[in-house]
Each structure stands twice: as structure tokens, then as C-alpha cells.
């Protein structure tokens, strides 16, 4: 059993426990459940610059502790938005990624830009949970869902006013992709082996319909890579570890995006 299989098996148990402790009906009573979400897809479509979805991330199964400075979600979110992030991704998995229960809430309080709930979503329950958290976008991972499951979850998310980022790794995930997803993400990292291959992502990009905004995810740590992927046709980039491993994630993001913008003007 690879790490992705282990995560999904644990997630199924986790969701069943959550359902027993906090029924879906309770989410509708929360203030954030009533808000109108922001649109990340429109932001990506309307900008031809370097759109970075900056991530708040404490740890990962492959790297262990990442947030060595113990920077709080609030301070990181403030800096990400201040310095021009197009959106903020926030991990909510506590078992494998060490997210704390109020991480997403802290980011939502600070941010007036779209927030992606970075989670292994397999059940309707998690969509209502995301709505109550104040999520604007949710992640669906093609590698762990059948086409009918992805279509159902996409439709349910849209009914709640939430956009869908559909993540692919290989051509088999493209074949399973629902037509109504809002954004397509290509993960540079193989979730089973954790190897990174940017050329694979560029090859996958050419196989996707032109109408979807496309983002490159995972393993990006230098600005030359961003420029290369931007030239290849990516509309945005999801980056977390490169910032979160630094003593000051907000400052690291500021320096990174400034360098990207400088290099972009020279193209």
C-alpha cells in the first residue's frame, strides 16, 4: 500500500467519525456557510501575469516538519495577500500533514482573496464542511476518484457555490475529468513515488482543453522554473514548501514573486 492509499483509507475512517460527531445539518447554521465565495477561476482568466496560489503548510508525509519557524496561519496569510498572492491554499489534513483544527479559520479571517481547501475529498460531507469553513475552492484528486464520483462531487460543490480544482497526474486522470470543473491542476510530483518531473507536466498541458485555467502544482522552488512553465502555458502556480520552510514565509514569498515579475518583464 503506497502513501496515497494509506491517506485515503484513513480519510474514509476520519469522515465517518466526523459525520457521527457533527451532522451536515449543523453546518448550515454557521455564518460562513451563508457567504458568497470568491472566484479563483475568474482571477486566473483575467490575469496574464504570474498568479501564485501560496500555501500554508505545516508538514508532509515525505518531508516531515516544514514550518520550522512555527509561523502562524494569520501572519502568513496577511503577508501572502499583502505581497500579491492570487489565492491561498490551506492544508486541513491533521493526521498526515499535521494541520491544526483552526488553521483554515485563521487564514479565512485574514484573507479577502480566494482560499483553496487542500484536502483529500472523497465524500459530500467534506464539501459542506468546506462551505462552513469559508472555502472558495476545493481540490478533487483524479487519482483517487472514479469519473462518476468526480462528477457528483463537482456538481455538489457548484450547488454550494464552491469552485473545483481538479488535479491530474496522468492521461488516465484526464479521461476521468468532469466537463464542469473550474480549474485544472497538473501535479509535478507523483503522489505514489514523490518524484518531480516538470516536463511531464508540460506534456500533460498539451492534452488538456484550452478553456480551463491551468495551474502547476508541487515541487516548484525557483523562479526560472516558474518562467519556463508560464511560457509553456500555465496560468497559475501552487507553491507552499518553498515559502514555509523559511524563517519568514511571507518575506520568502515576497522575494520570490518580485523575482518572477522582474524576469517576466524581460521576456
Question: Topology of this protein?
Answer:
Blueprint: H1 3-21, H2 40-46, E1 51-56, E2 59-60, E3 64-65, H3 73-82, E4 87-91, H4 103-110, E5 115-118, H5 124-133, E6 137-141, H6 147-159, E7 163-168, H7 171-175, E8 183-187, H8 198-205, E9 214-217, H9 223-232, E10 236-239, H10 241-244, H11 249-264
Parallel strand pairs: 1-4, 1-10, 4-5, 5-6, 6-7, 7-8, 8-9, 9-10
Antiparallel strand pairs: 2-3
Structural overview:
By secondary structure, the protein is α/β, with parallel strands linked by helices. The protein has one domain: Aldolase class I (TIM Barrel), CATH 3.20.20.70. The protein is 41% helix and 16% strand. Strands 1-4-5-6-7-8-9-10 form an 8-stranded parallel barrel, surrounded by 6 helices. A two-stranded antiparallel sheet has the order 2-3. Helix 9 links the parallel strand 9 and strand 10. The chain is globular.
Short description:
The protein has 267 residues and is α/β, with parallel strands linked by helices. It has helices at 3-21, 40-46, 73-82, 103-110, 124-133, 147-159, 171-175, 198-205, 223-232, 241-244, 249-264; strands at residues 51-56, 59-60, 64-65, 87-91, 115-118, 137-141, 163-168, 183-187, 214-217, 236-239. It has a single domain, classed as Aldolase class I (TIM Barrel, Alpha-Beta Barrel), CATH 3.20.20.
Amino acid at each position: 500500500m503506497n502513501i496515497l492509499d494509506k491517506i485515503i483509507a484513513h480519510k474514509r475512517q476520519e469522515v465517518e467519525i466526523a459525520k457521527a460527531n457533527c451532522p451536515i445539518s449543523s453546518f448550515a447554521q454557521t455564518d460562513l456557510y451563508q457567504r458568497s465565495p470568491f472566484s479563483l477561476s475568474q482571477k486566473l482568466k483575467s490575469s496574464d501575469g504570474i498568479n501564485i496560489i501560496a500555501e500554508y503548510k505545516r508538514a508532509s508525509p515525505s518531508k516531515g516538519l516544514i514550518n520550522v519557524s512555527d509561523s502562524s496561519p494569520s501572519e502568513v496569510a496577511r503577508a501572502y495577500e499583502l505581497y500579491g498572492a492570487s489565492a491561498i491554499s490551506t492544508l486541513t489534513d491533521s493526521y498526515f500533514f499535521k494541520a491544526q483544527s483552526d488553521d483554515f479559520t485563521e487564514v479565512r479571517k485574514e484573507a479577502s482573496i480566494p482560499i483553496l481547501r487542500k484536502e483529500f475529498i472523497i465524500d459530500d460531507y467534506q464539501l459542506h464542511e468546506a462551505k462552513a469553513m469559508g472555502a472558495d475552492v476545493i481540490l478533487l484528486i483524479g487519482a483517487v476518484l472514479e469519473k462518476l464520483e468526480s462528477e457528483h462531487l463537482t456538481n455538489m460543490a457548484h450547488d454550494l457555490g464552491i469552485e473545483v480544482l481538479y488535479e491530474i497526474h496522468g492521461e488516465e486522470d484526464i479521461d476521468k475529468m468532469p466537463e464542469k470543473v473550474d480549474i485544472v491542476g497538473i501535479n509535478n510530483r507523483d503522489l505514489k513515488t514523490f518524484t518531480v518531473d516538470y516536463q511531464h507536466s508540460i506534456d500533460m498541458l498539451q492534452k488538456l482543453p484550452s478553456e480551463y485555467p491551468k495551474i502547476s502544482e508541487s515541487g516548484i522552488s525557483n523562479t526560472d522554473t516558474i518562467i519556463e512553465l508560464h511560457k509553456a502555458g500555465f496560468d497559475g502556480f501552487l507553491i507552499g514548501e518553498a515559502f514555509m520552510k523559511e524563517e519568514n514565509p511571507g518575506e520568502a514569498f515576497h522575494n520570490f514573486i518580485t523575482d518572477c515579475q522582474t524576469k517576466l518583464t524581460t521576456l
